[in-house]
């Protein structure tokens, strides 16, 4: 037959088709023309009008190695030609086996076993089912409640919406499943309102213990927490918090799940953010940077104690959970390569150095400017909080016009470029923000 070259659409046509047919996650419809990205290379992406931008948000915090990475592309091509995948239900595939083994090596004992999913929400959802089934198999079927921080974010499935105490997820979505409860975020409530006040009051880890005791420890399965609240405003947990909650969980037989979907794999300048506190979780979830955004993929990694309990499942003698595409070989092959690049190319070390530069420059140049309420962050996960939603949006718009993509959620503008970002590119981002803040009114 004759081959027909694909029709090239103009920027205007794409914008129109986007508006007519595509639903966007958490994006108001028709407020402004959508940025339609058509290609990318390194830390830069190009839109449908041919304009290039420095991607100051790594897509949605996921493109950690940037765009068009030759080694990742080669891995994807090789795996797709060899075997696109083979399902793990009653069988296995080479890439998934090797990735599970690699993650075990990376975390070290006792985090030895991984289950693979396709998104962060699914990984957290699986973690909840895993901890509940684990307790049930150990003769404590009443241990079902999963506690999370009031300002945590864990995804959008129905159960993850219940676990995420956000009006955006709750309104009009009920009834939500029970078995979830929320613990005060370690953050001063008065600061959150922006009002002047004396003496901050920050709920500490004791708020977790109070919640465990209020529910009855014998009914609590797990506590899940992000080392840096992501959607909750890029807020690193106070130093010592994770160590304290680890100890509280142990005291009450409660499992600790760490959601490192945004913070893991080098984002904060170390391999995993929890390593700064020298603790080990019982279960850890990763996604986003695990495949650097090249393929949808997520992992739930757990201790041998948790994983090995499933051999004793009375119904199946195994884990009753998973998806058709769990451990998809394309994602697994990409993840294996990403892990190798992070290590051998010194990407985590670059994230640490570039992150120090980013956070330092933001604090130095933007701290104290009119309308800037706070600058915070760790590694290449930084935020500038403004006094108003309008101002944050204006700065985002000014950055875009200057060729730098950043985004805001409410009053919080977040900056999280690919981990391969150069010092010069960090400076470009900070320059754009600085000029944007000065121009905003
Ligand atoms: N957990 C955290 C900390 C996240 O930041 C996100 C996504 O932004 C999720 C879970 C949900 O992941 P996904 O959007 O892949 O479902």
Automatic annotation (TrEMBL):
Record's keyword terms, sorted: Aminotransferase, Pyridoxal phosphate, Transferase
Coiled coil region boundaries: none
InterPro entries xrefs: Aminotrans_3, Aminotrans_3_PPA_site, PyrdxlP-dep_Trfase, PyrdxlP-dep_Trfase_major, PyrdxlP-dep_Trfase_small
Pfam families, alphabetized: Aminotran_3
Listed Gene3D superfamilies: Aspartate Aminotransferase, domain 1, Type I PLP-dependent aspartate aminotransferase-like (Major domain)
A single GO molecular function term of this UniProt record: transaminase activity
UniProt-listed CDD domains: OAT_like
Family: Belongs to the class-III pyridoxal-phosphate-dependent aminotransferase family.
Identification of the protein by name: Aspartate aminotransferase family protein
Lineage, broadest ranks: Bacteria, Bacillati, Actinomycetota, Actinomycetes, Micromonosporales
